[in-house]
Amino acid sequence: MKNITSFSDPIIPYICNGVYPPSDDTYLIIDYFKKNVNENFFDGLPINNIRKILDMGTGTGIIALFLQEIKKNLSKFTTEIIASDISDAAIKCAMLNERINNYKDDITFIKSDLFRKFPPNLQHSFDIIVFNPPYLHSINYKENDPIRRSNDSNWDGGERGFEVFLEFINQVKDFLNSEQKYYIYYISSSSTDLSHLNAELETRGFQNRVLNKKHIFFEDIILNRLEEL
Ligand SMILES: C[S@@+](CC[C@H](N)C(=O)[O-])C[C@H]1O[C@@H](n2cnc3c(N)ncnc32)[C@H](O)[C@@H]1O
């Protein structure tokens, strides 16, 4: 059985101005995939059934590129990889990083505020969606770190820290392939009211499972997986 922990991480030389650099939250996702994807199963889902994966808020493109690396090495993983971001700088940066990693037009990039600019043919199509969203609440992000002020789409999740994510959840059902089991992987922060977030997710028909967490400075960053209730 091929062990994907031995696959090389994407090279990310272009950390472009204003684009979120790969960080602990990014690697919480990548490291989970390293441990839970093999040549037959993507975290328990049959790997040959996964037709489309979305990396929402791709930033430097690192997660999409890591998925592309898995695709290159596992013959049954023939999925189409789509990466999107609200930021022009992020899309340009991710495209540069795609070329540096010797992929050319393998990933489809879409500049869009959540799903607003997605073409209709992507509706009801995604089997897996990954979103490392901005997850700090606006007040924290203003008070804490001057570097964070200029990059608000990277950090500022809204007044309670999860307004951007809940807006994503409001739109996502139209883009999930509900004909088979799907997963949404996302990051949240213990600095926000997680019981409130979980209640909102349940109301919208999702079951949340915590997969991993890491303590950093003032918060735990948490990797979660959503599936249908
Ligand atoms: C925390 S960064 C994660 C970047 C990258 N995925 C990673 O893990 O390193 C959040 C990303 O979400 C993007 N983003 C924020 N709001 C968005 C929105 N409404 N629609 C699409 N992308 C958004 C930001 O521009 C940023 O690139």
Detailed description of the structure:
This protein starts with 23 loop residues before the first helix and ends with a strand. Helix 3 (88-100) links the parallel strand 4 (80-85) and strand 5 (107-111). Helix content is 32%, strand content 23%. The chain is built from 8 helices and 9 strands. It has a 7-stranded mixed β-sheet with strand order 5-4-3-6-7-9-8, with helices on both faces. The chain has a two-stranded antiparallel sheet with strand order 1-2. The chain has helices at 24-36, 62-73, 88-100, 138-144, 146-149, 152-155, 163-172, 194-203; strands at 41-42, 45-46, 52-56, 80-85, 107-111, 128-131, 183-189, 206-216, 219-228. It has a domain at 22-34 and 42-188: Rossmann fold, CATH 3.40.50. It is α/β, with parallel strands linked by helices and 229 residues long. The chain is globular. Bound molecules: S-adenosylmethionine. S-adenosylmethionine binds at residues 20, 22, 25-26, 56-59, 62-63, 84-87, 90, 113-114, 132-134, 153-154, 164.
For the biggest β-sheet, the strand order reads: 5-4-3-6-7-9-8
Summed up, the helix count is 8
The third-level CATH topology of the domain at 22-34 and 42-188 is Rossmann fold
Please state the structural category. Answer: alpha/beta
Termini gap:
32 Å
Shape descriptor reads globular
CATH class of the domain at 22-34 and 42-188: Alpha Beta
Low-confidence stretches: none
Strand content: 15-25%
Radius of gyration: 17 Å
CATH architecture of the domain at 22-34 and 42-188: 3-Layer(aba) Sandwich
Identify the CATH homologous superfamily of the domain at 22-34 and 42-188: Vaccinia Virus protein VP39
Fraction of residues in helix: 25-40%
**Largest sheet features:** 7 strands, mixed
Mean pLDDT across all amino acids: 92
Instruction: Output the helix-strand order.
Output: HEEEHEHEEHHHHEHEE
Bound molecules: S-adenosylmethionine
Strand tally, please? 9
